[in-house]
């Protein structure tokens, strides 16, 4: 018997045009990387302990999102995988951003629940109880779905950001992604008044 759905699987307005959203994220990432701002975001803090991580997502949610990220971006002979670039830690930082649209954050959280719900419907057990093969099959199943395509696309965007972001932002430890891509981050570091989110306050005053 299928588990009754408790929440409609739909993308918020901001994600209706996924391509436009990705382009806006690309513009943001490019500006902070080239300016070196990611390493100086004043709201950033290390998500080193489980307690800090659980302030954003539950232990089960963390397990699911980490697993899905690794399926979307697995490690290979020639490059790092999602876990190698700390994609989950990066995503936690994004979700903790005080300037982040709460609807976007809730969408990420809701998607985790939808994945688990689909696992119950398909395999009659929670996602965390699935074998690796079953997890991969499940992701293949939801990918063609409207909500699945959108949600997975959002996760991939943040994985790619983690690959390129400053290591102090939670992802890309020791510049793993930079080294793999032979990428050199921008210098010099910006002045305090040009740091995010101070620069946003300045813009809003103009």
Instruction: Give the termini distance in whole angstroms.
Output: 58 Å
From N to C, what is the helix and strand string?
HHHHHHHHH
| Cα shape | globular
Helix coverage percent: 40-55%
The portion of residues forming beta strands comes to: under 5%
Major sheet summary line = none
Tally of domains: 1
The chain-level structural class is mainly alpha
Number of helices: 9
Total strand segments? 0
Which segments are poorly predicted (pLDDT under 50) over 5 or more consecutive residues?
Answer: 1-5, 34-46
Describe this structure in words.
The chain is an all-alpha fold. Helix content is 54%, strand content 0%. Helix 1 runs parallel beside helix 7 and helix 5 packs across helix 6 (132-142). The radius of gyration is 18 Å and the shape is globular. The termini are far apart.
What does this entry show, briefly?
By secondary structure, this protein is mainly alpha-helical. The chain contains 9 helices and no strands.
Indicate the topology:
Elements: H1 18-35, H2 50-53, H3 59-72, H4 87-96, H5 102-123, H6 132-142, H7 146-164, H8 176-181, H9 198-205
Helix pairs in contact: 1-7, 4-7, 5-6
């Amino acid at each position: 018997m299928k588990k009754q759905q408790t929440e409609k699987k739909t993308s918020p307005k901001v994600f209706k045009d996924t391509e436009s959203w990705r382009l806006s994220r690309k513009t943001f990432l490019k500006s902070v990387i080239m300016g070196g701002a990611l390493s100086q975001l004043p709201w950033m803090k290390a998500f080193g302990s489980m307690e800090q991580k659980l302030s954003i997502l539950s232990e089960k949610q963390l397990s699911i999102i980490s697993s899905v990220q690794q399926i979307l971006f697995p490690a290979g002979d020639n490059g790092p995988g999602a876990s190698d670039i700390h994609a989950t830690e990066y995503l936690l930082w994004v979700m903790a951003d005080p300037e982040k649209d709460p609807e976007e954050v809730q969408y990420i959280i809701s998607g985790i629940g939808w994945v688990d719900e689909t696992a119950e419907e398909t395999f009659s057990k929670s996602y965390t109880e699935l074998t690796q093969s079953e997890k991969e099959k499940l992701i293949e199943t939801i990918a063609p779905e409207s909500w699945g395509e959108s949600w997975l696309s959002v996760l991939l965007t943040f994985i790619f950001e983690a690959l390129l972001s400053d290591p102090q932002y939670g992802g890309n430890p020791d510049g793993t992604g930079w080294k793999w891509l032979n990428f050199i981050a921008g210098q010099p570091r910006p002045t305090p008044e040009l740091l995010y989110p101070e620069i946003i306050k300045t813009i809003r005053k103009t």
